[in-house]
What does this fold into?
Amino acid sequence: MIHMRIPNLPISVDHAYESITRGRGPKKVTVRRLSDAGRKYKNEVRTHIIMSYPDVLPFFKENHPYVLVVQFTFHGRGKLYNKSWLAEDPKKRAKSRYKRLDVSNRLKLFEDALSEAVGLDDKHNFFVGVGKTWHRDYEATDVWVFNRDIEEDNPIDAILKQLRAASRPESH
It folds into this structure.
């Protein structure tokens, strides 16, 4: 199993891709493409992985099934929790404890950037788990990757153990 930490978070799919309309009339076609912000993110992640984890790149091999666990760590509790959830006045209290923050919306861009960095199509990812947490001092994307062919039979337990040890947010 390997672990990598990327010191930023992917942007949402809404900002990573844009719709472009080409042609006119009945020949008009709308296509989706990576936005400038999406391209910038992928380039930054690819460069970071190649420069910071060159010893990890040989871990990724064609025709092996991989398990990925991805954790997005947001900077500050306020990114995930509504401050007014605990308000004494019911009229000022938020309806939900948590802010709208869909982590699966960010996963695809990260998965694509990782695939480009390691030179292996994401068709090899047989299981991908994603979660979110917060930390008061930083934001980051952590990924634990497990090769099912060469490592122990239960990757989820091993990855979850690493995940718990590596990132313990302050009490909520």
